[in-house]
TrEMBL record:
Belongs to the iron/ascorbate-dependent oxidoreductase family. It catalyses: jasmonate + 2-oxoglutarate + O2 = (1R,2R)-12-hydroxyjasmonate + succinate + CO2. GO terms for biological process: defense response; negative regulation of defense response to insect; regulation of defense response to fungus; regulation of jasmonic acid mediated signaling pathway. This is Fe2OG dioxygenase domain-containing protein.
């Protein structure tokens, strides 16, 4: 099963639709009633005061010092967030706030370039690298209200600066510096996750391939939508990779995380990253940590931009539950599968909730 060379239908840029001044969105973007933001799961529990709930926010400064009590407190907060939410925000994470701001502005500048300049980077389903407007190759699928740019950082054999946007000026240098800093941060976080699982601190990193891991960036651009109650910027899904580091829009909320029977709209903290567990760490942890469904809502008054950095296993290493986490009471829940085999599912079919990782469970 291979990805085709081109999309099944002509690509329409959502930003162009938005800027055309249309009052009603095309049928191709109208979600079924059960998937719409206003009629799906309750956004909040009636017993909780509106706006009072958010994913955990963790100050990581104590993780890197010599104060063992403070370090253990941070590790405990991370562990609880991974088990209870699958999502958390981090501040004082070691990546410069100025670099975060520059990276956002570079990408915002790209999406506001003239269309003919952006079209030079148009992508295909073969690699997804470049400027895109849809996931999945199912003809006639209901589409998401978003455009994006996807590029590779690691392995170095896939890193091709010619596929990165040359404009705005200095964008390639900023994008490269941002990727290097986030990769370092992911390495530190992987140690914390390993320790919290009772494994050697390098276990997860080694299971991913050591230094030979995969890393890529998807920049999401969500234009204004005249009917935000009918559409989604990104359909409900769990991330197929290892771990995701999201730099959200600093002015517009949009990410929603599924918590039990409701959707929680994440309120970004200033210069925080939003971290979430991906399907590969769910498999490695034998479902002690779970990847969680999330989606993106859109806005009629404001556009929104976010940077999702994916930290993934080397693509050809079989991923399976850590033997230390398999017992007679908790047998291995998943069969081995490489990340290459795994991500083909979402590339062909688009985001579909938790259906991929759930379909991998070993028969009982």
């Amino acid at each position: 099963m291979n990805c085709p060379q081109d999309w099944p239908e002509p690509i329409v840029r959502v930003q162009s639709l938005s800027e055309s001044g249309l009052e009603a969105i095309p049928d191709r973007y109208i979600k079924p009633p059960t998937d719409r933001p206003t009629t799906s799961l309750k956004e909040s529990d009636p017993s909780i005061e509106d706006g009072a709930i958010n994913i955990p926010i963790i100050d990581l400064e104590g993780l890197y010092g010599d104060d063992h009590d403070r370090r253990n407190s941070v590790l405990r907060q991370i562990s609880e967030a991974c088990r209870d939410w699958g999502f958390f925000q981090v501040v004082k994470h070691g990546v410069s706030p100025e670099l975060m701001d520059r990276s956002r502005e570079v990408w915002r500048g790209f999406f506001h370039l003239p269309m003919e300049l952006k079209q030079a980077y148009a992508n295909s389903p073969k690699t997804y690298e470049g400027y895109g407007s849809r996931l999945g190759i199912v003809k006639g699928a209901i589409l998401d209200w978003s455009d994006y740019y996807y590029l590779h950082y690691l392995p170095l054999s896939l890193k091709d600066l010619n596929k990165w946007p040359a404009l705005p000026q200095n964008s390639r240098e900023v994008i490269d510096e941002y990727g290097k800093e986030v990769v370092k941060f992911c390495g530190r976080l992987m140690k914390a996750l390993s320790i919290n699982l009772g494994l050697e601190e390098d276990y997860l990193q080694n299971a991913f391939g050591g230094e030979n891991i995969g890393a890529c960036l998807r920049v999401n651009f969500y234009p204004k939508c005249p009917q935000p109650d009918l559409a989604l910027g990104l359909s409900s899904h769990s991330d197929p990779g290892g771990m995701t580091i999201l730099l959200p829009d600093d002015h517009v909320a949009g990410l929603q995380v599924r918590k039990g029977d409701r959707w929680i709209t994440v309120k970004p903290a200033p210069h925080a990253f939003i971290v979430n567990i991906g399907d590969q760490i769910q498999v490695l942890s034998n479902a002690i940590y779970k990847s969680v469904e999330h989606r993106v809502i859109v806005n009629s008054a404001k556009e929104r931009l976010s940077l999702a950095f994916f930290y993934n296993p080397k693509s050809d290493i079989p991923i399976e539950p850590a033997k230390e986490l398999v017992t007679s009471d908790r047998p291995a829940l998943y069969q081995p599968m490489t990340f290459d085999e795994y991500r083909l599912f979402i590339r062909l079919r688009g985001p579909r909730g938790k259906s991929q990782v759930e379909s991998l469970k070993s028969p009982r």
